[in-house]
Amino acid sequence: xxxxxxxxxxxxxxxxxxxxxxxxxxxxxxxxxxxxxxxxxxxxxxxxxxxxxxxxxxxxxxxxxxxxxxxxxxxxxxxxxxxxxxxxxxxxxxxxxxxxxxxxxxxxxxxxxxxxxxxxxxxxxxxxxxxxxxxxxxxxxxxxxxxxxxxxxxxxxxxxxxxxxxxxxxxxxxxxxxxxxxxxxxxxxxxxxxxxxxxxxxxxxxxxxxxxxxxxxxxxxxxxxxxxxxxxxxxxxxxxxxxxxxxxxxxxxxxxxxxxxxxxxxxxxxxxxxxxxxxxxxxxxxxxxxxxxxxxxxxxxxxxxxxxxxxxxxxxxxxxxxxxxxxxxxxxxxxxxxxxxxxxxxxxxxxxxxxxxxxx
Length: 360
Prior knowledge:
CATH class of the largest domain: Mainly Beta
Number of helices: 7
CATH superfamily of the largest domain: Nucleic acid-binding proteins
Mean pLDDT: 86
Order of helices and strands: HEEEEEHEEEEHEEHEEEEEHEEEHEEH
Helix content: 10-25%
Number of strands: 21
Strand content: 35-45%
Distance between the termini: 146 Å
Low-confidence stretches: none
Structural class: alpha+beta
Strand order of the largest sheet: 1-2-3-5-4
């Protein structure tokens, strides 16, 4: 029996059955045939020629003839018979796989933010763009500013653009195109070890990272510390900026430790001058003082640099209906008589000098 003769059409049809057809979205690998001003052509072997618009690869490395590249199929057949390819999409697809694996393994990675807004830092990793929120910055980089000044926050964040930062991936959702980084998570393990070495009463050195109305934030080797306004100085502090500046190195005593922050005191590293100055005051003695505060229940009077005393409303006559603001003027100096010195509770009570004399 004679063998069947295969025609050219039969051979082409047979070859076509063995060649996998390209589909939109799949990844292909090929070698660069040519690099022109507005296009890059890629040899896909039996699957034909791929076409990459030159503007589409501007983000990528320098491309040379003969280089092997991986691309994503955007269109299987253009008018010229080529397949439209995207190197950017391929890189992004691989990037999503990479960031997902990094998150699953809780790996620490290194990134450099490329831009900032008031909410945080914009970061690109493995071709995927993500976000590092302000709330996820470490104590070293968190922009502590007074009165939540948005312009100052942005200025502080802009200073971090281009800096190398260690982060972990907090959330990765390819469908939602959501990638969130955290610097706090990346340093958490190291912080836990440092916390274990600290104890209440220790003296630590830190760098001031923020000065706000209620106190001073300090970075102590990556751990955030807060010096409350009442712990800055033994004297009354009205403005923390008068005592420290951002970037200044300060020493402080640990007075409390919680899971994420240290409570610190600068004043407790020095002797309380009140204890010395109060020895000069005895009950019934007459003193001169300056009215520093007027409240509904009386007035506070500075009788020495470190000692402040109270003239209670009950000492002003007329019962509790009297208005201290009609009796005193802020910053005026008056004569007073000491009624009581309570060293244990750090309190001194006064009355008006004239009133005491009239009583006697």
